[in-house]
Amino acid sequence: MPKNSIILIPLIALCLYSLKVLAKDPPYGRLSVNSKGQLVGSNGQQVQLRGISLFCNQYQPEFYSEQVVRAVKCFYNGNIIRAPIEPGVFKDKPDQDFKAIFNVIDGAIKHGIYVMVDWHDVSTQKCGDWEMKEFTNNAIRFFSAVMNKYKGSPNIILEFWNEPGCDWKIVKKYHYTLLWAIRQIDPNFVAILGCPLTFENVKDPVYGTNIMHMLHFYPIWEPLPFTFTTKILDYAKDRNIGIFVSEYGDATVTPNAPIKPNEIKKL
């Protein structure tokens, strides 16, 4: 695995400590991204985060709870949970989404793990000027509320845009706009920047402090060959561009789906 890529790996293990956990700092303290594009802990050592991504809360709101956060830590040996919020739902039901995301963040802080706050568009966002302005303003509203409430928390990672389908120039402008806006509230958080699966985003990356570019990996669904994904990783590594794999799967959601565990091991 390239040293500057971080993969969320589901790892089932029995929790060896009490479920009754008091609020405490996450395992590696405050995270940052070093000059090599590596995610590191407060001691400067490279870290690996592993955990579970929830499904959007409008479909399974019962999973946005402290009990689920505790289960990710204690029964899956996870040190991070990813909580997606769908932009279209947030626009219509912001109170519902704020309640859901705050439940997960509070649980992560209580149980001492990280939480990735994910603005979860799935390549459905329209890319025109008006649509992007609304999308950007809603994202700023959402992330500003989160960071105003939890300013300075070492537990929080922000994922600005899950799987964008727009041209990289549009996506890149969006990321710079959000970075400027949210850094006014908290200058130190780590941001994961959503990217189309192309070479363009690593050849023309976003520059800044504590940022990593996103990569998702599904060997069953992926239309591009596996070697293309590894080439992106190698290119980024050689240029000290941080890559964070915030989502992956080795099968589809259909019954009796084939899996490709060897492809996951290669990555």
Automatic annotation (TrEMBL):
Q: Which UniProt keywords apply?
A: Carbohydrate metabolism, Glycosidase, Hydrolase, Polysaccharide degradation, Signal
Q: Which residues form the Glycoside hydrolase family domain?
A: 41-252
- Transmembrane helix among the record's keywords? no
The UniProt record lists the keyword Ribosomal protein: no
One cellular component term from this protein's GO annotations in UniProt: cell surface
Q: Name one Pfam family in it.
A: Cellulase
Output the GO biological process annotations, alphabetical, semicolon-separated. glucan catabolic process
Name the Gene Ontology molecular function terms of this record.
beta-glucosidase activity
Please state the span of the N-terminal signal peptide per the UniProt entry: 1-23
Q: Which family does it belong to?
A: Belongs to the glycosyl hydrolase 5 (cellulase A) family.
- Its protein name is Glycoside hydrolase family 5 domain-containing protein
Tell me which species this is from. Answer: Meloidogyne enterolobii (Root-knot nematode worm)
